[in-house]
Amino acid sequence: MHKDVGLEPIRVGLVGLGTVAQGTLSVLAQNAEEISRRIGRPLVITHVGARRDRPGVDLTGIKVSRDLMAVAQDPDVDVFVELIGGTDDALALIEAAIQSGKHVVTANKALIAIHGNRLFQMAEDAGVMIGFEASVAGGIPVIKAIREGLAANQIAWVAGIINGTGNFILTAMREEGRAFDDVLQQAQALGYAEADPTFDVEGIDAAHKLTILAAIAFGMPLSFERVSTEGISKIQSIDLDYAEALGYRIKHLGVARRTESGVELRVHPALIPEKALLANVNGVMNAVQVHGDAVGSTLFYGPGAGSLPTASAVVADLIDVARVLTADPTNRVPHLAFQPSAVADLPILALDQTRCPFYVRLSVRDEVGVLARVTRVLADYQVSLESVIQKEGVEGHPVGLILLTHTVEEASLRKALAVLAAEPIVQGEAVVLRVETLGAGS
Fold this sequence. Notes:
Elements: E1 10-15, H1 19-30, H2 32-39, E2 43-49, E3 63-65, H3 68-72, E4 79-82, H4 88-99, E5 103-106, H5 109-126, E6 130-131, H6 142-149, E7 155-161, H7 164-176, H8 180-189, H9 198-201, H10 204-218, E8 228-229, H11 237-245, E9 248-258, E10 263-273, E11 285-292, E12 296-303, H12 307-323, E13 355-356, E14 358-364, H13 370-380, E15 385-390, E16 399-405, E17 408-409, H14 410-421, E18 431-435
Parallel strand pairs: 1-2, 1-4, 2-3, 4-5, 5-6, 8-10, 10-18
Antiparallel strand pairs: 7-9, 7-11, 9-10, 11-12, 13-17, 14-16, 14-18, 15-16
Helix pairs in contact: 1-12, 4-5, 5-10, 7-8, 13-14
Protein backbone atom coordinates (compact mmCIF):
# COMPACT_ATOMS: atom_id res chain seq x y z
CA MET A 1 0.00 0.00 0.00
CA HIS A 2 1.39 3.40 -0.90
CA LYS A 3 0.22 6.83 -1.81
CA ASP A 4 0.84 8.01 -5.34
CA VAL A 5 1.82 11.60 -4.70
CA GLY A 6 2.82 12.42 -8.28
CA LEU A 7 5.01 15.51 -8.32
CA GLU A 8 3.40 17.01 -5.24
CA PRO A 9 5.60 17.55 -2.17
CA ILE A 10 6.21 14.51 -0.01
CA ARG A 11 4.77 15.35 3.38
CA VAL A 12 6.79 14.34 6.39
CA GLY A 13 5.62 14.07 9.98
CA LEU A 14 8.32 14.13 12.65
CA VAL A 15 8.12 13.34 16.37
CA GLY A 16 10.80 14.59 18.74
CA LEU A 17 12.69 17.87 18.84
CA GLY A 18 15.98 16.72 20.32
CA THR A 19 19.46 17.01 18.87
CA VAL A 20 18.95 14.71 15.88
CA ALA A 21 15.50 16.09 15.06
CA GLN A 22 16.85 19.65 15.07
CA GLY A 23 19.65 18.52 12.81
CA THR A 24 17.11 16.93 10.46
CA LEU A 25 15.10 20.14 10.27
CA SER A 26 18.31 22.05 9.56
CA VAL A 27 19.51 19.70 6.80
CA LEU A 28 16.11 19.65 5.11
CA ALA A 29 15.95 23.45 5.14
CA GLN A 30 19.55 24.06 4.12
CA ASN A 31 19.62 21.49 1.31
CA ALA A 32 16.01 21.71 0.16
CA GLU A 33 16.86 22.47 -3.46
CA GLU A 34 19.53 19.76 -3.68
CA ILE A 35 17.18 17.19 -2.14
CA SER A 36 14.38 18.15 -4.52
CA ARG A 37 16.75 17.74 -7.48
CA ARG A 38 17.70 14.27 -6.26
CA ILE A 39 14.14 12.96 -5.90
CA GLY A 40 12.22 15.09 -8.41
CA ARG A 41 9.86 16.69 -5.90
CA PRO A 42 10.03 18.70 -2.66
CA LEU A 43 10.37 16.99 0.72
CA VAL A 44 8.54 19.05 3.34
CA ILE A 45 8.03 18.74 7.09
CA THR A 46 4.32 19.41 7.57
CA HIS A 47 3.61 18.12 11.09
CA VAL A 48 5.84 17.97 14.19
CA GLY A 49 5.02 16.23 17.44
CA ALA A 50 6.76 17.54 20.54
CA ARG A 51 5.70 17.42 24.18
CA ARG A 52 7.32 20.80 24.84
CA ASP A 53 8.75 23.76 22.94
CA ARG A 54 12.44 23.99 22.13
CA PRO A 55 13.81 27.56 22.24
CA GLY A 56 15.40 28.61 18.98
CA VAL A 57 13.68 25.97 16.84
CA ASP A 58 11.77 27.64 14.01
CA LEU A 59 8.56 25.75 13.23
CA THR A 60 6.92 28.50 11.21
CA GLY A 61 4.30 27.09 8.86
CA ILE A 62 4.48 23.62 10.44
CA LYS A 63 1.59 22.06 12.34
CA VAL A 64 2.68 21.25 15.92
CA SER A 65 0.98 18.70 18.17
CA ARG A 66 1.61 17.80 21.80
CA ASP A 67 -0.05 14.46 21.12
CA LEU A 68 2.61 12.48 19.25
CA MET A 69 0.09 9.90 18.09
CA ALA A 70 -1.68 12.64 16.14
CA VAL A 71 1.37 12.80 13.85
CA ALA A 72 1.58 9.01 13.40
CA GLN A 73 -2.09 8.89 12.39
CA ASP A 74 -2.27 12.12 10.38
CA PRO A 75 -3.80 11.23 6.98
CA ASP A 76 -1.97 14.17 5.42
CA VAL A 77 1.47 12.73 6.27
CA ASP A 78 3.21 10.39 3.79
CA VAL A 79 6.32 9.51 5.81
CA PHE A 80 6.60 9.30 9.59
CA VAL A 81 9.97 10.04 11.25
CA GLU A 82 10.47 8.80 14.83
CA LEU A 83 13.27 10.57 16.73
CA ILE A 84 12.14 10.34 20.37
CA GLY A 85 14.25 7.32 21.31
CA GLY A 86 13.33 4.67 23.86
CA THR A 87 11.26 1.64 23.01
CA ASP A 88 7.76 1.75 24.48
CA ASP A 89 6.27 4.99 23.12
CA ALA A 90 8.34 4.76 19.92
CA LEU A 91 7.05 1.22 19.27
CA ALA A 92 3.41 2.28 19.65
CA LEU A 93 3.93 5.28 17.36
CA ILE A 94 5.66 3.32 14.60
CA GLU A 95 3.05 0.56 14.73
CA ALA A 96 0.31 3.18 14.38
CA ALA A 97 2.12 4.83 11.47
CA ILE A 98 2.49 1.51 9.64
CA GLN A 99 -1.14 0.67 10.26
CA SER A 100 -2.01 4.07 8.78
CA GLY A 101 -0.10 3.15 5.59
CA LYS A 102 2.86 5.43 6.23
CA HIS A 103 6.50 4.75 5.46
CA VAL A 104 8.73 5.11 8.53
CA VAL A 105 12.22 6.48 9.18
CA THR A 106 13.89 6.05 12.58
CA ALA A 107 17.29 6.44 14.24
CA ASN A 108 16.23 4.15 17.10
CA LYS A 109 18.75 1.29 17.34
CA ALA A 110 17.28 -0.19 20.54
CA LEU A 111 13.83 -0.34 18.96
CA ILE A 112 15.10 -1.99 15.77
CA ALA A 113 17.35 -4.44 17.62
CA ILE A 114 14.61 -5.55 20.03
CA HIS A 115 11.39 -5.20 18.00
CA GLY A 116 12.64 -5.01 14.42
CA ASN A 117 11.61 -8.53 13.38
CA ARG A 118 7.97 -7.79 14.17
CA LEU A 119 8.04 -4.26 12.75
CA PHE A 120 9.58 -5.39 9.45
CA GLN A 121 6.91 -8.06 9.10
CA MET A 122 4.22 -5.43 9.74
CA ALA A 123 5.81 -3.14 7.16
CA GLU A 124 6.01 -5.93 4.59
CA ASP A 125 2.34 -6.81 5.14
CA ALA A 126 1.38 -3.14 4.76
CA GLY A 127 3.63 -2.58 1.71
CA VAL A 128 5.61 0.20 3.36
CA MET A 129 9.30 0.79 4.11
CA ILE A 130 11.17 1.32 7.36
CA GLY A 131 14.40 3.31 6.93
CA PHE A 132 16.87 2.89 9.80
CA GLU A 133 20.30 3.90 8.43
CA ALA A 134 20.77 6.38 11.29
CA SER A 135 20.42 3.62 13.89
CA VAL A 136 24.03 2.42 13.39
CA ALA A 137 27.19 4.53 13.33
CA GLY A 138 25.50 7.93 12.94
CA GLY A 139 26.45 9.52 9.63
CA ILE A 140 28.36 6.50 8.26
CA PRO A 141 26.17 4.84 5.57
CA VAL A 142 27.22 1.35 6.63
CA ILE A 143 23.77 -0.26 6.45
CA LYS A 144 23.33 0.81 2.84
CA ALA A 145 26.90 -0.27 2.08
CA ILE A 146 26.37 -3.81 3.40
CA ARG A 147 22.80 -4.17 2.16
CA GLU A 148 23.40 -2.81 -1.34
CA GLY A 149 27.01 -1.95 -2.15
CA LEU A 150 28.34 -5.32 -0.94
CA ALA A 151 25.32 -7.36 -2.02
CA ALA A 152 27.44 -9.52 -4.35
CA ASN A 153 29.51 -10.81 -1.42
CA GLN A 154 29.17 -13.51 1.16
CA ILE A 155 30.11 -11.58 4.29
CA ALA A 156 32.58 -13.46 6.51
CA TRP A 157 32.75 -11.00 9.38
CA VAL A 158 31.93 -7.49 10.57
CA ALA A 159 33.95 -5.78 13.29
CA GLY A 160 33.41 -2.25 14.49
CA ILE A 161 34.07 0.50 16.95
CA ILE A 162 30.42 1.51 17.14
CA ASN A 163 30.18 3.49 20.36
CA GLY A 164 31.95 6.84 20.39
CA THR A 165 31.77 7.29 24.16
CA GLY A 166 33.69 4.10 24.89
CA ASN A 167 36.23 4.90 22.19
CA PHE A 168 36.77 8.39 23.60
CA ILE A 169 37.40 6.93 27.06
CA LEU A 170 39.88 4.28 25.91
CA THR A 171 41.70 6.79 23.69
CA ALA A 172 42.15 9.28 26.53
CA MET A 173 43.23 6.53 28.95
CA ARG A 174 45.91 5.35 26.50
CA GLU A 175 47.16 8.75 25.36
CA GLU A 176 47.06 10.52 28.73
CA GLY A 177 47.57 7.65 31.19
CA ARG A 178 44.39 8.52 33.09
CA ALA A 179 42.05 6.21 35.00
CA PHE A 180 38.67 5.10 33.65
CA ASP A 181 36.58 7.00 36.23
CA ASP A 182 38.48 10.24 35.60
CA VAL A 183 37.98 10.09 31.82
CA LEU A 184 34.34 9.08 32.22
CA GLN A 185 33.68 12.26 34.21
CA GLN A 186 35.26 14.30 31.42
CA ALA A 187 33.13 12.49 28.82
CA GLN A 188 30.02 13.36 30.81
CA ALA A 189 31.09 17.00 31.12
CA LEU A 190 31.61 17.17 27.34
CA GLY A 191 28.22 15.61 26.65
CA TYR A 192 29.65 12.40 25.15
CA ALA A 193 28.32 10.26 28.03
CA GLU A 194 24.95 10.36 29.77
CA ALA A 195 24.56 10.89 33.53
CA ASP A 196 23.92 7.14 33.62
CA PRO A 197 26.58 5.87 31.19
CA THR A 198 25.68 2.17 31.48
CA PHE A 199 24.43 1.71 27.90
CA ASP A 200 27.67 3.12 26.50
CA VAL A 201 30.40 1.79 28.79
CA GLU A 202 28.89 -1.65 29.38
CA GLY A 203 28.37 -2.34 25.67
CA ILE A 204 24.57 -2.37 25.46
CA ASP A 205 24.43 0.41 22.87
CA ALA A 206 27.05 -1.37 20.77
CA ALA A 207 25.15 -4.65 21.12
CA HIS A 208 22.03 -3.00 19.67
CA LYS A 209 24.04 -1.85 16.66
CA LEU A 210 25.87 -5.15 16.22
CA THR A 211 22.53 -6.96 16.20
CA ILE A 212 21.46 -4.89 13.21
CA LEU A 213 24.76 -5.26 11.35
CA ALA A 214 24.79 -9.04 11.80
CA ALA A 215 21.23 -9.46 10.56
CA ILE A 216 22.01 -7.51 7.38
CA ALA A 217 25.40 -9.15 6.85
CA PHE A 218 24.27 -12.75 7.28
CA GLY A 219 20.56 -12.74 6.45
CA MET A 220 19.46 -13.79 9.94
CA PRO A 221 16.76 -12.54 12.30
CA LEU A 222 17.62 -9.73 14.70
CA SER A 223 18.92 -11.53 17.81
CA PHE A 224 19.81 -8.91 20.42
CA GLU A 225 19.19 -11.26 23.34
CA ARG A 226 21.93 -13.60 22.03
CA VAL A 227 24.74 -11.02 21.88
CA SER A 228 27.50 -11.63 24.47
CA THR A 229 28.26 -8.24 26.00
CA GLU A 230 31.15 -6.98 28.12
CA GLY A 231 31.98 -3.37 28.92
CA ILE A 232 35.14 -1.36 29.49
CA SER A 233 34.69 -0.23 33.10
CA LYS A 234 37.27 -2.76 34.36
CA ILE A 235 40.00 -1.78 31.88
CA GLN A 236 43.08 -0.36 33.62
CA SER A 237 45.78 1.90 32.20
CA ILE A 238 48.36 -0.78 32.97
CA ASP A 239 46.67 -3.14 30.49
CA LEU A 240 46.71 -0.46 27.81
CA ASP A 241 50.45 -0.09 28.42
CA TYR A 242 51.12 -3.83 28.30
CA ALA A 243 49.07 -4.13 25.11
CA GLU A 244 51.24 -1.47 23.45
CA ALA A 245 54.39 -3.28 24.59
CA LEU A 246 53.08 -6.36 22.78
CA GLY A 247 52.25 -4.40 19.62
CA TYR A 248 48.50 -3.98 20.21
CA ARG A 249 45.91 -1.41 21.22
CA ILE A 250 42.77 -2.08 23.23
CA LYS A 251 39.47 -1.08 21.62
CA HIS A 252 35.85 -1.79 22.52
CA LEU A 253 34.67 -3.89 19.58
CA GLY A 254 31.48 -5.34 18.25
CA VAL A 255 32.25 -8.54 16.32
CA ALA A 256 29.91 -10.65 14.18
CA ARG A 257 31.65 -13.59 12.53
CA ARG A 258 30.29 -16.46 10.48
CA THR A 259 31.95 -19.83 11.26
CA GLU A 260 31.25 -23.41 10.24
CA SER A 261 29.68 -24.01 13.65
CA GLY A 262 27.53 -20.89 13.78
CA VAL A 263 27.60 -17.12 14.16
CA GLU A 264 29.63 -15.30 16.79
CA LEU A 265 27.90 -12.20 18.19
CA ARG A 266 30.02 -10.44 20.79
CA VAL A 267 30.79 -6.98 22.19
CA HIS A 268 33.88 -6.68 24.40
CA PRO A 269 37.25 -4.97 24.83
CA ALA A 270 39.85 -6.53 22.52
CA LEU A 271 43.49 -6.19 21.62
CA ILE A 272 43.96 -5.20 17.96
CA PRO A 273 47.33 -5.13 16.14
CA GLU A 274 48.57 -1.55 16.39
CA LYS A 275 48.97 -1.20 12.61
CA ALA A 276 45.40 -2.34 11.90
CA LEU A 277 43.04 0.35 10.61
CA LEU A 278 40.58 -0.05 13.49
CA ALA A 279 43.40 0.32 16.05
CA ASN A 280 43.91 3.88 14.79
CA VAL A 281 40.29 5.03 15.12
CA ASN A 282 40.41 7.42 18.08
CA GLY A 283 38.27 9.81 20.09
CA VAL A 284 34.53 9.75 19.44
CA MET A 285 34.86 8.48 15.88
CA ASN A 286 33.26 5.21 14.72
CA ALA A 287 34.44 2.69 12.15
CA VAL A 288 33.10 -0.58 10.80
CA GLN A 289 35.27 -3.09 8.93
CA VAL A 290 33.49 -5.61 6.70
CA HIS A 291 35.12 -8.63 5.06
CA GLY A 292 33.44 -10.03 1.94
CA ASP A 293 34.62 -13.00 -0.07
CA ALA A 294 34.85 -11.02 -3.32
CA VAL A 295 35.83 -7.54 -2.15
CA GLY A 296 38.09 -8.48 0.77
CA SER A 297 38.16 -6.04 3.71
CA THR A 298 36.56 -2.59 3.50
CA LEU A 299 36.48 0.09 6.19
CA PHE A 300 33.71 2.64 6.78
CA TYR A 301 34.82 5.52 9.01
CA GLY A 302 33.23 8.70 10.29
CA PRO A 303 31.28 10.41 13.08
CA GLY A 304 29.07 7.94 14.92
CA ALA A 305 26.78 10.51 16.54
CA GLY A 306 25.96 14.19 16.60
CA SER A 307 23.18 16.36 15.30
CA LEU A 308 24.13 16.85 11.65
CA PRO A 309 25.93 13.54 10.96
CA THR A 310 22.97 11.51 12.24
CA ALA A 311 20.54 13.85 10.49
CA SER A 312 22.45 13.14 7.28
CA ALA A 313 21.47 9.47 7.60
CA VAL A 314 17.87 10.31 8.51
CA VAL A 315 17.44 12.54 5.47
CA ALA A 316 19.16 9.97 3.23
CA ASP A 317 16.49 7.47 4.32
CA LEU A 318 13.79 10.03 3.54
CA ILE A 319 15.25 10.44 0.06
CA ASP A 320 15.27 6.65 -0.42
CA VAL A 321 11.62 6.45 0.65
CA ALA A 322 10.73 9.31 -1.67
CA ARG A 323 12.41 7.63 -4.62
CA VAL A 324 10.41 4.42 -4.24
CA LEU A 325 7.04 5.80 -3.18
CA THR A 326 5.55 4.64 -6.44
CA ALA A 327 7.57 1.42 -6.73
CA ASP A 328 6.05 -2.03 -6.40
CA PRO A 329 6.82 -3.10 -2.78
CA THR A 330 8.12 -6.49 -3.98
CA ASN A 331 10.88 -4.73 -5.94
CA ARG A 332 12.25 -2.70 -3.04
CA VAL A 333 15.50 -3.45 -1.24
CA PRO A 334 14.59 -5.82 1.64
CA HIS A 335 14.88 -4.37 5.15
CA LEU A 336 17.41 -6.99 6.24
CA ALA A 337 19.12 -7.24 2.82
CA PHE A 338 17.80 -10.76 2.06
CA GLN A 339 14.30 -11.55 0.85
CA PRO A 340 12.07 -12.05 3.92
CA SER A 341 11.36 -15.67 3.00
CA ALA A 342 15.12 -16.34 2.82
CA VAL A 343 16.11 -14.93 6.22
CA ALA A 344 17.67 -17.95 7.98
CA ASP A 345 17.65 -18.60 11.73
CA LEU A 346 21.38 -19.38 11.91
CA PRO A 347 22.88 -21.02 15.01
CA ILE A 348 24.58 -18.54 17.33
CA LEU A 349 27.62 -19.67 19.29
CA ALA A 350 27.91 -19.29 23.05
CA LEU A 351 30.88 -17.15 24.05
CA ASP A 352 32.84 -20.11 25.47
CA GLN A 353 32.65 -21.80 22.06
CA THR A 354 34.43 -18.97 20.28
CA ARG A 355 38.10 -19.22 19.34
CA CYS A 356 40.68 -16.43 19.34
CA PRO A 357 44.00 -15.49 20.95
CA PHE A 358 43.85 -14.00 24.46
CA TYR A 359 45.73 -11.48 26.60
CA VAL A 360 45.95 -12.63 30.23
CA ARG A 361 47.41 -10.65 33.13
CA LEU A 362 48.09 -12.65 36.30
CA SER A 363 49.35 -11.38 39.63
CA VAL A 364 51.78 -14.02 40.89
CA ARG A 365 54.33 -14.59 43.65
CA ASP A 366 57.86 -13.49 42.80
CA GLU A 367 59.60 -16.83 43.21
CA VAL A 368 61.44 -19.45 41.18
CA GLY A 369 59.31 -21.90 39.21
CA VAL A 370 56.17 -19.78 38.92
CA LEU A 371 56.31 -19.40 35.13
CA ALA A 372 56.98 -23.10 34.70
CA ARG A 373 53.95 -23.98 36.82
CA VAL A 374 51.69 -21.55 34.96
CA THR A 375 52.73 -22.82 31.53
CA ARG A 376 52.31 -26.45 32.65
CA VAL A 377 48.70 -25.85 33.72
CA LEU A 378 47.95 -24.01 30.49
CA ALA A 379 49.45 -26.84 28.44
CA ASP A 380 47.20 -29.34 30.23
CA TYR A 381 44.26 -27.50 28.62
CA GLN A 382 45.90 -27.09 25.18
CA VAL A 383 46.64 -23.40 25.73
CA SER A 384 49.93 -22.44 24.02
CA LEU A 385 51.68 -19.11 24.43
CA GLU A 386 52.92 -16.67 21.83
CA SER A 387 54.49 -14.09 24.16
CA VAL A 388 55.25 -13.68 27.85
CA ILE A 389 56.18 -10.53 29.79
CA GLN A 390 57.29 -11.11 33.37
CA LYS A 391 57.73 -7.86 35.29
CA GLU A 392 60.39 -7.43 37.91
CA GLY A 393 58.90 -7.00 41.34
CA VAL A 394 59.70 -5.91 44.86
CA GLU A 395 60.60 -8.75 47.21
CA GLY A 396 57.58 -9.94 49.13
CA HIS A 397 55.09 -8.40 46.70
CA PRO A 398 53.22 -10.05 43.79
CA VAL A 399 54.40 -9.27 40.26
CA GLY A 400 52.60 -9.03 36.94
CA LEU A 401 52.79 -11.95 34.51
CA ILE A 402 51.42 -11.05 31.08
CA LEU A 403 50.59 -13.85 28.67
CA LEU A 404 49.58 -13.68 25.02
CA THR A 405 48.12 -16.99 23.88
CA HIS A 406 47.75 -18.54 20.46
CA THR A 407 44.19 -19.13 19.20
CA VAL A 408 42.28 -21.27 21.69
CA GLU A 409 38.66 -22.08 22.51
CA GLU A 410 37.53 -19.78 25.30
CA ALA A 411 36.15 -22.65 27.39
CA SER A 412 39.59 -24.31 27.54
CA LEU A 413 41.30 -21.10 28.65
CA ARG A 414 38.68 -20.47 31.32
CA LYS A 415 39.15 -23.99 32.72
CA ALA A 416 42.91 -23.51 32.89
CA LEU A 417 42.53 -20.15 34.63
CA ALA A 418 40.13 -21.67 37.15
CA VAL A 419 42.83 -24.21 38.09
CA LEU A 420 45.45 -21.47 38.36
CA ALA A 421 43.15 -19.35 40.52
CA ALA A 422 43.24 -22.11 43.14
CA GLU A 423 47.06 -22.16 43.16
CA PRO A 424 48.80 -20.30 46.03
CA ILE A 425 51.24 -18.78 43.51
CA VAL A 426 48.41 -16.78 41.87
CA GLN A 427 46.96 -13.85 43.80
CA GLY A 428 43.84 -11.93 42.87
CA GLU A 429 41.69 -12.20 39.77
CA ALA A 430 43.10 -12.68 36.28
CA VAL A 431 42.50 -9.95 33.71
CA VAL A 432 41.42 -11.60 30.44
CA LEU A 433 40.97 -9.76 27.14
CA ARG A 434 40.37 -11.20 23.68
CA VAL A 435 42.70 -10.49 20.76
CA GLU A 436 41.11 -9.72 17.40
CA THR A 437 43.37 -10.30 14.41
CA LEU A 438 40.70 -8.81 12.11
CA GLY A 439 40.59 -11.38 9.40
CA ALA A 440 43.96 -13.04 9.52
CA GLY A 441 43.38 -16.24 7.63
CA SER A 442 40.00 -15.06 6.25
